[in-house]
C-alpha cells in the first residue's frame, strides 16, 4: 500500500542529520583517552522520534553511544543540556543512568562533528520492550514481573522525591572547555 503524507519532503528533511563522522571519531577518542585508529566499529544502534543513536566500538571492546539529535529538536541546545543535566541528577540520586563522557550543545565547526551530540556509556542488557512484549497474560503475574515492577516503582519513588525549586536547575560546562548554557542564576 502506498503511503501518502502531507509535506513528506519537509518531514523527511527534519529527520536528516548530516555530520562529520571523522570529527565524531576524534571527539569519541578524546572522551575515552584513545586514538581514532583504535575505533574499530561504528553502526546505527537505534532511532527515536528526536534522535539517532550510534554504537562506537574500540579495539579493546569498550563501547559507547553517540546520541545525535535530529534538526527538528527545539529548543536545540536546551534540550541537550536538559537531557545531560537530568541524567547527571538521576545518577547522583542512585537511579542507574548512563554516564555522559562528552556533549556539545552547539553545531559549530570547532566541536568537530558539526552537530550537537551526547557521548554516553553503553549499558549491556536486553531492551525492556522486548521482554515486556514477550510476556503472556498469565506470565505478567509472575515473580519476575513483580520484581521488575518493584524496581520500576523504587526508581519512580526516587524521581518523585526530587524537589525542583521554580526556575532552578544545574550548571553545565561543556567538556570542550567552552561554557555551556548557564542554567543556574548566580546571586
From TrEMBL:
List the InterPro entries: Kinase-like_dom_sf, Mito_inheritance_9
What superkingdom heads the lineage? Answer: Eukaryota
Instruction: Show the GO cellular component annotation of the record.
Output: mitochondrion
PANTHER family associated with the record: ALTERED INHERITANCE OF MITOCHONDRIA PROTEIN 9, MITOCHONDRIAL, AMINOGLYCOSIDE PHOSPHOTRANSFERASE DOMAIN-CONTAINING PROTEIN
Organism (species): Favolaschia claudopus
Protein name (database record): Aminoglycoside phosphotransferase domain-containing protein
